[in-house]
Design brief:
595 residues; alpha+beta; four-stranded antiparallel sheet; 20 helices; 17% strand
Length: 595
Amino acid sequence: MLVLYAFLRSIKSTLIIGLSIPISVISTFTLLYFSKLTLNMMTLGGLSLGVGMLVDNSIVVLENIFLHRESGEDVHLAAELGANEVGEAITASTLTTIAVFLPIVYVSGIAGELFKTMGLTITFSLLMSLLVALTLIPMLSSKQRKTVHLSSQNTNNVPAGAKKTKSKGFFAFIMQEYSYLIDWSLRHRGIVVIMAIVILVVSFSLLSLVGAEFFPAIDQGNFNINISLPVGTNFDVTKEITREIEQVIISIPEIKSTFTTIGSGGTMGMGSSANNATIMATLLEKDKRDRKSSEIIAELRERIGEYPDTEIHFSEQNLSFTSGSPLTINITGDTIEELDFIARSIVSILSEVEGVYDLQSSVEEVRPELHIAIDREKVNLFGLSAGQVASSVQDALLGKVAGYFQEGGERYDITVRLEKSDYDELQELENLIISSSYGLQIPLKEIAEVKVGIGPQGINRENQQRQVTITGNISGRFLGNVIRDCKEKLDLLVLPDGYLYAFAGEQQEMVKSFRELFYALILSLCLVYMIIAAQFESLLFPFAVILSVPFAFIGVIVALMLTGTSLNVLSLIGLIMLGGIVVNNAIVLIDYINQ
């Protein structure tokens, strides 16, 4: 309203347009109610984004009515003529903006789920603002007392714009200079077109310098440090190293508190993960620190350094709409051994890429286990099969349901298995008796070799092929730039036949969302063209409007570069919105020029 008053120089006129905002917003709530949409981050975001566009239609109508009043017309006639002259133009411009947001409703994936409600909210608010601009604004304008008094001398010879800006020094200067610029541009059309095209080409060539990511990182003020030592490491050793790292973290002034967990499950020192620890750090509030969490993590990486046989991984607690790490690569193939070798090779290659940290392979996540290698010749000799041996070992260690016990309407399984003390030592397990179909009692060590080893936490499959996943964090660079560098290095890697790798996770969702939003932009421009063609009853005028859209992106690319902002899903939504705004201005301008 302050901006409006600076241009209109009238409190009454400013209040008239100011009334259109709450009326349009409250009317939008009604449509949200019948559409079964709630007030949430996206619908309120749509309303706040739509507020700026709500007054567009009202400003155009009021400005035109004001122009007629300055020319000496009666207030009622000025309100009627002013609204009629621009009625078709603002209707077309509002419909084109709606056409820009309508395709977002059909975008799939996370981007579609997030921005579908926003698009609907903006659509509802624009429809209400159009209704207000064509009805309420002219009515309120007609109730104003005439405050503009013009001299009867030379009224017909003085342009309306000159009368309007006569007393406004700054605006008069701007309008005068603008008229000179327009005059020069119309006399040098070829130069203007060539300059515009050159600037457009140069701007798009700079697009590669703009980083890309799925969603911009949001500093949540939390991060974790995961510490992993070799399997079998004593609890006290893990605690000692964790304490040292914890002291380094506490020495950072921005750290508010830490919470440390060492091992999980089992008794102290005897749990299966006594070699693992997690430190959860909470930072001071944003207004009490000068650095971002990513900058603090970068300093900690340098100060902590490396410990022998210890893996230290940082994970920043960002608001994310995807699961997993920012950098995720899936490798598929037949054998775990070959997949492990490929994974180690890729980890080694990617560790040289700037901005990539905390690389790890799912194969590295191992646990201690017993390996029982069956001698098939001996098994057959004793009248057994490998399946029978495996079943006997499983029944002895894990138990077998032998029957049921019922009491009070409840049924309980009766599980028969060995006492833990009977197989707590490797030697005792080797003496486990296996019964053969020949009536023989054979110790397990006679037909199989039992030894302690390590194995993966789990074996993942996709499309019936084994899969190993490599994950990593990205810091100091945008995801798109890092992925581009990773692909350049991995293109030199030659994989065996039947083995493939593919980027997944955030990168996969980013590519999908970018593609969907790009299609939405193309579809919206097609809808805009059809609406404008119907409005002007011409196939040529719409091209003049549509061609103005790419030139608006010049400022976008320059702004992204100067501010260090990435091209992400939010940026693309802004681009689509910008297309509607540019089209609005062009429609009103061309329609008024025609009149």
